[in-house]
Amino acid sequence: MPGLIVVGAGPLIGTSTARRFAADGLPVALVARSRPTVDAAVLATGPAAAHGFVGDVTDEASIRAALDAAVDAIGVPEVVLYNAALVRYDAPGELTSEQLLATLAVNVVGGVTVAAHLAPAMAAAGGGSLLFTGGMPQAKAAATSLSLGKAGLRSVADLFRDQYGPQGLHVATVTVCDVVVPGTAYDPDLIAEEFAALHREPRDAWRDEVVFQR
């Protein structure tokens, strides 16, 4: 059975979404930059349903190798979630060019690499869902790098939708408008439900974006 690949399988949205899809019977491949993060996500998801792989979205060879290993384990995915992010709070001009580029490497370029690596095979296999964790619906000076990154990621989704939507790939974003904290209105399990709902949508009712605001 085709499954789910989560890139950026941290303890909040990534793991919650993995658990949600695993509950529907999908095998799950979890990708994160460090082995401890991967192992914790696999344990939280359920080792019987999940496979873990180490891959760094800022290292093209590393992330492509992890994605290939994930496909070997679960097949061409039915769903991909790009959830990797470098979240920091900085003012306009506060970061050096090098520091700003480092945030964009995670928040934008990694999304392009992952989508470009998997979308062609997904489309050839009949389609599926390419999902992104968005944020910052309005730019804020106190979160300059994150505002730029999430705006860029929204454009990544738009570009891949334009390219692969006609081939049956549902490309969509859940834009999370506040800090994710378990037990609050921004509980990661609630956000995971939004990703699951997007994936279940019939083609004639596809939404491009869900704005998760409470």
Detailed description of the structure:
It is a single chain. With 214 residues, the protein is of the alpha/beta class. The chain has a single domain, classed as 3-Layer(aba) Sandwich (Rossmann fold), CATH 3.40.50. 46% of the residues lie in helices and 18% in strands. It has 6 helices and 7 strands. It has a 7-stranded parallel β-sheet, sandwiched between helices. Helix 1 links the parallel strand 1 and strand 2. Helix 1 packs parallel to helix 2 and helix 1 packs across helix 6. The longest helix is centred in the middle third of the chain and has 28 residues. The chain is globular, with a radius of gyration of 16 Å. The model has no long low-confidence stretch (mean pLDDT 97).
How are the SSEs placed, and which strands pair?
Blueprint: E1 4-7, H1 13-23, E2 28-32, H2 35-45, E3 50-54, H3 60-74, E4 79-82, H4 97-124, E5 128-135, H5 144-164, E6 169-176, H6 188-200, E7 209-212
Helix pairs in contact: 1-2, 1-6, 3-4, 4-5
